[in-house]
Amino acid sequence: MVWVRSEYAGELAVVSTWVTALLPWNIFYGAVAGGTVLFVRFPLLQIRYTFGVPLVRATSFATPVSAYLFQAGTSVQVAYGVWMLGAAIYLVALAISVYYYREQERVEAWSVDPVSLLGGLLVASGLLFVVASLLFPETFFGLSFGVGGGFAGVSLPVGALVQLLLGGVLLRAERVS
After folding, report:
1. Which residue among 67, 103, 161, 176 has the highest number of C-beta atoms inside a 10 angstrom radius?
2. Among 64, 131, 125, which Cα is nearest to 89's?
3. How confident is the model at residue 146 (pLDDT cuts 50, 70, 90)?
4. Residues forming beta bridges with residue 140, ordered by sequence position
């Protein structure tokens, strides 16, 4: 079963890569230190909102690298490391998609199919985002799998699942040479 016509596969690959930049791969909301916290994790940015947590800024931003370095020596550093690896793969996909958009004929002449390449990169980074979600000490769909025993709250890998779906669609696209 083909989900996308061959002549539109390139456009879908570019748009899918860009859309996943705007979808948070993980959203966590829960109780921490007498207050509540909301983490919204995008492929290349984390936004943390806190409410009622003493001595903590209400809103903070972090990149995968800065979050990883901030968590040095803690039990969640591994999760942030997996996110950082997924973000690096995603950044490669994003760069390829921008180049594909600007130089479609050149990219279509590559020895590797750019649609399959972007699909594979989206699946690889999406899988790493799901693994990172499982490694965070938060509850995952109501179940605690994290290395730290679980914060009270809910963690949803929304964008990671969408990213896996879009990557899978791109990998299944039949291309006519």
Report:
1. 67
2. 125
3. very low
4. 143, 155
Q: What does the pLDDT read at residue 149?
A: 47
Distance of CA 30 to the CA centre of its chain: 20
162/26 Cα distance (integer angstroms): 11
In this structure, which topology does domain 6-172 adopt according to CATH? Butyryl-CoA Dehydrogenase, subunit A; domain 3 (1.20.140)
Please measure the distance between the N-terminal and C-terminal CA atoms of the chain and give it in whole angstroms.
19
Q: Which amino acid, residue 73?
A: G
**Residue 115: both structure tokens together:** 């649609």
List the structure tokens of 25: 């791969």
- In this structure, what DSSP letter does residue 23 have? S
Q: Which amino acid type is present at position 159? A: G
Residue 27: other Cβ atoms inside 10 A: 17
The two structure tokens encoding residue 120: 């594979």
Cβ neighbours around 139 below 10 Å, total:
19
Q: What is the pLDDT of residues 110-145, one digit of tens each?
A: 999 999 999 999 999 999 999 998 887 654 444 444
Q: How far apart are CA 120 and CA 79, in angstroms?
A: 22
